[in-house]
Amino acid sequence: MPDQNEIQDLLERFRRGAELIAVVTTGAAGAELDYCPAPGKWSVRQIVCHLADSEIVGRDRLSRVIAEENPTIIGYDQDAWAEKLDYRKRKFSQALETFRRIRGENFELLKDQPETAWPRIGTHNERGPLTLKDLLRIYADHAEGHARQIRAARDAYKASKASA
Questions:
Q1: Domains (ranges, CATH) in the chain?
Q2: Bridge partner residues of 129 (DSSP)
Q3: Are 92 and 45 in contact (CB under 8 A)?
Q4: Does residue 85 contact residue 53 with C-beta atoms inside 8 Å?
Q5: From the CB of residue 131, how many other CB atoms can be counted at a distance below 10 Å?
Q6: Do 157 and 32 contact (CB within 8 A), yes or no?
Q7: Residues whose CB falls within 8 Å of the CB of residue 112, separated by 6 or more in sequence, listed in order
Q8: Number of other residues whose CB lies within 10 A of the CB of residue 39
Q9: Tens digits of residue pLDDT in 41-66
Q10: Average of pLDDT values for 17-22?
């Protein structure tokens, strides 16, 4: 069985992900939301839209692994989603609220899972077998990684304004 202290630490990191994204986006508005720091890099708006959609996908994945026997977990093309779902034009505040709300709901789903739930497996069509604990770690890391990306994009925007 997984180490319960490790599970509790991962759960806390997962829970804090929504707060972290809210903090790193505080005060971002206007042109700063749409500034792309380099070709092929996402803007703050696009990152937050991606987080919202990813969290919705995550809910499906987490639920399947908890409720079904070895479900298939389907990957998706995040760049196609960003383009075809028009992340450049989606409302930032709505995407942020969606991420925060679904992350909170996902935390509520996970926080009281029994010890026997964490080793349950789903098979990702690209990554192979993933346990519920693996998914928890992936989604905890996901928000933290994008928080760093948002900070870097905002810093690049400020630097571009200072040198203009």
A1: 4-159 (1.20.120.450)
A2: 123
A3: yes
A4: yes
A5: 16
A6: yes
A7: none
A8: 5
A9: 999 999 999 999 999 999 999 999 99
A10: 97
